[in-house]
Every structure is written in C-alpha cells, then in structure tokens.
Amino acid sequence: MKKNICVVGAGKWGKNHIKTLFDLNALGAVVDKNKDTLNLISKKFPDCELYSTLDDNIIKKYDGFVIATEPAFHFELAKKVILGSKPLLVEKPLTLNYESSKTLCEMSNEMNVNLMVGHVLLFHPAFKKMKDLLINGEIGEIQYIYSNRLNMGKFRNNENVFWSFAPHDIALLNYFFECSPSDVNSNGIDILQKGIHDTSITTFDYNGKKMAHIFVSWLHPFKEHRFVIIGSKGMLHFEDSLNNRPLLFYNNKAEFINKVPNPLKGEVRKIDYDNEQPLENELKYFISNLDKKIEISSGEDGLEVIKILEKASANLTPRLS
C-alpha cells in the first residue's frame, strides 16, 4: 500500500528528502514558509500538496512526517506531530538540548508513536559492511576507533563545529561499540567567532580499555571524511571524501616476541560493498517501520547522542585572547 509522507522544511537537506521520497513514490506533501521555495517544488513535483504552516488538519492527512527544518524548530514541530499520533523522522540533532529531546522521547512513548532520528550514516552501505565484518570476527575485538571530519566551511553562527559535524560520528561510535562511553573529554578553539568553536578534538573512553576520538574542523585546507577501526586481528579504513569511497582492510596486528610487541603487517585488501544511497536506505526503513518498533536510530538513540554532545560541549570554553 502506498504511503504518503509529509516533509516539513524544504531547505538544502529537506530537498534531498523530498526528491528521495518522490523516487520512492511516497511523497505526499511539503510544508515550508518560503513561498518561492514552494513554487519551485510545485513545478518539479506537481502532484505534491503544499502548505506554508503545519496544523492539526494536515497532520491527520498523512502517514508519516519528516522534520527537516533548522534544529531550533525541531522540538515544537515534532511535538505537534507526536500529539497528532503520527510517526516521524526528525533530522539530526533531535533538538538542541537534552531536556527537550528527553521530553519528545517520553511523549512518543506515552502516545505510542514511532520517533526516529536522521543519523543517515547508520544506513550507509560501507558502515553496514564494516559492522558485518566486525560481527563475523574479521578484525577481532575493537580496540580503538577514530573519525576525522574536516572541511573549509560551511561556517555557522548558531552552533559550533562539534554540534554541526560530530552527531553522525557519535551515532557511529555507539553503533560499533554497542554502548555509550564511560567518559568524554573535549578540547578546541574558537578562532573566528568567540564561543563558537571552529575545531575540536574529543576523546571517548569505553569500558574494557577501549577508546575513540573525533576530530572535527571547518577551518581546514581540504575535505577529509576518514573513519578507522582498529581491531585485535585487523584494521578497517573508510574514506568517504574520495571519489571512489574506498573501504580497506589492513591485515595488521601486534605480535609479542619475548614479551615485546612487534608490528606484523599483512596485505591491504579492498572490501566491496553495495552501491546504495544512505538516505534512500534510511527512508525505506522509516516507511517500512511506520507501525513497527524502530531498532536503528530511534528517539532514544538520538537522545543519547544529545547527551554526549552536551557533555563534550561543557569542556569547550572560549579561549582567552
């Protein structure tokens, strides 16, 4: 049965949702306050219903909702949809603070409404393949993970680079470690705008002598999206910023000789993974689970990401000039 999904917010990322839902034959409506934006959408998608505001009558008409506005509007819009008893996917971050995110999770549980958060990299075929390799024991036990998410711009004045870049990577760390960190520490610098950090390095400690770090910056000479998992039997490296987006397995490990660790380097092997679009995978999952339990990127998962974001940000204080 065809599902009609309403997208609230037709900005840069909202347009991606609109196009993907259209391709999936699931686009029902778009809500956006900008009349020029709605006019453009009407030309591209003439069968799509268009609204300038979200109200109770609109909520009744559709099977599910995607909230893709600026994060400052997520809470009030998501609250409306939940009170209307309709499932929803809220783009990351769920909200801009832990308390409001917790309220949405509690409301969705009370109303028995499915709440999902748009941590789209959890649906990226390369990361799904890395998870399969880990489950199958290819790299042994995880020892260390790191992510570099670096670029020149886009600068923001309403959130720091950690809130802008790191939510996806935090979700990935929780996905691979299958738990939350026992401790989080962050350090950074606010060069361009006081109190809004351009660069930060955040470390995560996990039980069992495991560790991770996330390095993010929007003041960097080149784009780099690098994700590395170090295991006891091998290592995985995914480079999302390169054209061919390679996923590599390094058969490297440490071998003890006379109680002294020595590097044992093996072959480097390219790992094939499915050629799928993460957003398409995410929206397919959302549509197929409108009335089923959300197992991947649930509201509670999004809430845990907000908790970690807040804890790390508490360490980020403006530098004295």
Proportion of residues in helical segments: 25-40%
What is the radius of gyration? 21 Å
Mean pLDDT equals 94
Distance between the termini: 61 Å
Question: What proportion strand?
Answer: 25-35%
Q: Which descriptor suits the 3D outline? A: globular
Element order: H for helix, E for strand: EHEHEHEHEHEHEHHEEEEEEEEEHH
Q: Can you count the beta strands?
A: 16
Structural class: alpha/beta
Which residue ranges are poorly predicted, with pLDDT under 50 across at least 5 consecutive positions? none
Overall number of domains? 2
Question: Can you describe what's shown?
Answer:
The protein folds into 2 domains: 109 residues, NAD(P)-binding Rossmann-like Domain (Rossmann fold); 162 residues, Dihydrodipicolinate Reductase, domain 2, CATH 3.30.360. It has 10 helices and 16 strands. The strands form 3 sheets. An 8-stranded mixed sheet has the order 8-9-10-7-11-12-13-16. Strand 11 and strand 12 form a beta hairpin.
Topology:
Blueprint: E1 5-8, H1 12-23, E2 27-31, H2 35-44, E3 49-51, H3 56-61, E4 64-67, H4 74-83, E5 88-91, H5 98-110, E6 115-118, H6 125-135, E7 142-152, H7 161-165, H8 167-177, E8 183-189, E9 199-206, E10 210-217, E11 219-231, E12 235-239, E13 247-250, E14 253-257, E15 260-264, E16 268-270, H9 278-288, H10 299-313
Parallel strand pairs: 1-2, 1-4, 2-3, 4-5, 5-6, 7-10
Antiparallel strand pairs: 7-11, 8-9, 9-10, 11-12, 12-13, 13-16, 14-15
Helix pairs in contact: 4-5, 5-10
